[in-house]
């Protein structure tokens, strides 16, 4: 497969390399046409693309690419695909679909930084695990490749991963995950993603909905809890002593 790159290429849609759902193609979707040479273009010719519903009328979106089975990007090819497109957050679900997300707004990025800062400060003092920001990718047991907004992995689990694999998308599910809902995010896909984390080995997950000031708490074999406007979240017993101050997140 040739070099993968994302460009503003309206012709890719016009020639049905990727066929968007809907009557028009916006600039974000046009940007995510893959132009990788004739062999890859031919593989994409039977693919489809669709966008998730945007309830907020904003220009940010998630483009879901369903590619031809002949494409079948390997783990290494997918990793390189993400590396040469660092301005975008790219995931792959268990069905092999590529989920290409537009960059978050500046305000969401600020709140995400406050989230990872608090987790990182606690993790440095605790020393029993490794913390990660939203740029880290993980290959879950079900085959999905995800990048939670913040996450934490027990030290013994992390050390069991060969150093070479740590340089790619580590084959594990974090023990603790956080997803921060931005104004353009639909709630249901995030809830489904949180369930996926739990089903694949996460022991604790927080879905923070800033718009509605709600937090959804996920644990294995436990009904999801929904808290309205909490001031803090406590990570005990998995994260002993970790308290997330939500005043810096709301």
From TrEMBL:
Residues 76-246 form the Putative restriction endonuclease domain. It comes from Dactylococcopsis salina (strain PCC 8305) (Myxobactron salinum). It comes from the Bacteria. CDD domains: DUF820-like. This is Putative restriction endonuclease domain-containing protein. The lineage of its organism: Bacteria, Bacillati, Cyanobacteriota, Cyanophyceae, Nodosilineales.
């Amino acid at each position: 497969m040739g070099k993968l790159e994302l460009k503003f290429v309206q012709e890719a849609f016009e020639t049905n390399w990727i066929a968007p759902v809907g009557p028009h193609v916006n600039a974000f979707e046009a940007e995510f046409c893959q132009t990788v040479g004739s062999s890859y273009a031919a593989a994409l010719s039977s693919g489809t693309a669709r966008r998730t519903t945007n309830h907020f009328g904003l220009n940010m979106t998630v483009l879901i690419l369903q590619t031809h089975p002949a494409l079948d990007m390997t783990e290494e090819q997918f990793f390189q695909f993400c590396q040469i497109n660092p301005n975008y957050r790219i995931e792959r679900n268990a069905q092999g679909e590529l989920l290409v997300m537009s960059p978050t707004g500046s305000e969401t990025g600020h709140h995400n930084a406050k989230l990872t800062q608090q987790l990182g400060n606690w993790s440095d003092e605790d020393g029993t695990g490794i913390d990660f920001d939203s740029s880290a990718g993980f290959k879950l047991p079900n085959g999905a490749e995800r990048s939670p907004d913040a996450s934490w992995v027990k030290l013994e689990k992390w050390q069991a991963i060969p150093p070479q694999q740590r340089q790619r998308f580590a084959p594990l599910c974090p023990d603790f995950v956080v997803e921060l809902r931005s104004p353009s995010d639909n709630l249901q896909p995030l809830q489904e993603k949180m369930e996926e984390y739990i089903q694949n080995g996460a022991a604790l997950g927080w879905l923070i909905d800033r718009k509605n000031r709600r937090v959804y708490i996920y644990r294995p074999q436990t009904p999801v809890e929904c808290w309205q406007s909490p001031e803090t979240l406590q990570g005990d017993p998995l994260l002993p002593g970790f308290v997330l101050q939500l005043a810096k997140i709301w």
